[in-house]
Amino acid sequence: MSFTADIWKKNAALFEATRTMPFNTELAAGTLSEERFRHYMIQDAHYLIAFGRALAVASAKADTPDEIVQFAIGAQTAIVVERSLHKDFMEQFKVTPEVFAATPLSPATHHYTSFLMSTAWGASYPVVLAGLLPCFWIYAEIGRDIIGRAAKNNPYQSWIDTYAGDEFHEAVRAVIATVDRVAAVASNETRKAMHDAYTRAAQLEWMFWDSAYRLEQWPV
């Protein structure tokens, strides 16, 4: 069994909890409220800035030229390509640049982005990749799952199509292959740290969607 197959198996229950959570169930049905999706999009746009930075650090830490390019392109995609999707929804939901800039990171977003940046700067290259992997892999599998059960005329179809699309899945498969490559030559201690980083990031993925569903704000 490959490293990533093992890590997926050990976190299968967490993925199932994410797949069936109210946010994703209602998104697939097309019944998710605009208020909840708006909250999600604003927070996700904030998140992608940190995700792009973490990918750039991963690129700097990469130990092969191909992987330097892989994660540099990933950083560009996170900032330019995925945020273009957000732009369309921002316009649809009348989120102006001023409104976005004035909206702080929610507690869950703050937690997740802090985890990404501290891991990116403080951990070894293999552990950084493991912490980044859930955002790729879980989104791909959620997108693939939702497109198979999405309601017709779904108001969130462009979001679904992005993460269920072949281009995104090809990029995810490349990241999975890279994680397997570095895990194959890592020490047992490093592989344990990779498992821990993956699980924590996967938990934070669940928390991120849950926080959007609850319209999470700072309590004080």
UniProtKB/TrEMBL annotation:
Active site: E205 (proton donor)
Record carries keyword Membrane: no
InterPro entries linked to this entry: Haem_Oase-like_multi-hlx (IPR016084), TenA_E (IPR026285), Thiaminase-2/PQQC (IPR004305), Thiaminase_II (IPR027574), Thiamine_Salvage_TenA (IPR050967)
Pathway(s) annotated for this protein in UniProt: Cofactor biosynthesis; thiamine diphosphate biosynthesis
Alphabetical list of Pfam families matching this protein: TENA_THI-4
GO MF, any single term: thiaminase activity
Enzyme Commission code(s) on record: 3.5.99.2
Domain of life, source organism: Bacteria
Catalysis: reaction(s): 4-amino-5-aminomethyl-2-methylpyrimidine + H2O = 4-amino-5-hydroxymethyl-2-methylpyrimidine + NH4(+); thiamine + H2O = 5-(2-hydroxyethyl)-4-methylthiazole + 4-amino-5-hydroxymethyl-2-methylpyrimidine + H(+)
Residue ranges crossing the lipid bilayer per the database entry: none
Keywords: Hydrolase, Thiamine biosynthesis
Single Gene Ontology BP annotation: thiamine biosynthetic process
A single cellular component GO annotation: cytosol
Top-level EC class as recorded in UniProt: hydrolase
Gene3D superfamilies registered for this protein in UniProt: Heme oxygenase-like
Thiaminase-2/PQQC domain span: 22-214
Family: Belongs to the TenA family.
Function: Catalyzes an amino-pyrimidine hydrolysis reaction at the C5' of the pyrimidine moiety of thiamine compounds, a reaction that is part of a thiamine salvage pathway. Thus, catalyzes the conversion of 4-amino-5-aminomethyl-2-methylpyrimidine to 4-amino-5-hydroxymethyl-2-methylpyrimidine (HMP).
Protein name: Aminopyrimidine aminohydrolase
Lineage: Bacteria, Pseudomonadati, Pseudomonadota, Betaproteobacteria, Burkholderiales
